[in-house]
Amino acid sequence: MSAASLVAVPSLLVRHELRLLASLWLWAARRTHGAVAGGAVFGYARGQGAMTAGFAFVCAVESLTMSVLLREWPTAHHVVLVLDLYTVVIVIGLHAASVVRPHVLDPAAGVLRIRRAVHVDVRIPLERIASVRRELRTTHERTDGELDLAVGSQTSVTVELAEPVVHVSFFGRRRGVRVVRCHADDPGALVRAVERAREGHAVP
Q: Helices then strands (H, E): number in the chain?
């Protein structure tokens, strides 16, 4: 990693945390980020809710345990307590980000946005889509030109492109991808909506 990249890391982390906190606010307000009039949104967080709740519970138990172990050292106790509570907030924020930032189909703009929390937002022009289909996969091998956005270790929709689109990683690395696999709570609805939009029909 270059020196410039190392300098940019703190700002990227701060932006990431702020987006998670903003997602918590959107979740509490029952608002959806990126939804457009005449478009459609497709959630993908349903399958990870139980896992997130379990992880948050484990973090809470760990916080209580450390409080007991460090009760004789108040300074260390307060520091660890703040860190543990913040960890719980971040865990819940990651789930909130997945809920409020669904996949978005915008027929008017001719774009399909495939997203995963605050980490990934790939904009795919509809005219570049060669095919879109339901395809359940539970194993994924890292391959050049392919982007796998698994939720709960699975993807359920595969989008193949006639021309590559650019995916920008968390740390700003850019690469072209021709196959995007993602998960959707209702993969059939996502596939049908994309096909209708490609044919010029209104999205139901």
A: 4, 8
pLDDT for 103-131, tens place per residue?
A: 999 999 999 999 999 999 999 999 999 99
Quote the pTM value: 0.85
CA 23 to chain CA mean position, Å: 11
Here the tokens at position 137 are 């996969």
Question: Are the CB atoms for 147 and 124 separated by under 8 Å?
Answer: no
- pLDDT digits 0-9 by tens, 155-173: 999 999 999 999 988 877 8
DSSP 56-78: HHHHHHHHHHHHHHTTT-HHHHH
Long-range CB contacts (within 8 A, 24+) of 45-48: 45/95, 45/98, 45/99, 45/102, 45/151, 45/185, 46/185, 47/151, 47/152, 47/154, 47/183, 47/185, 48/95, 48/98, 48/151, 48/152
Residue 5 amino acid letter? S
Distance, in Å, from the CA atom of 151 to the CA atom of 138, rounded to the nearest integer, reads 10
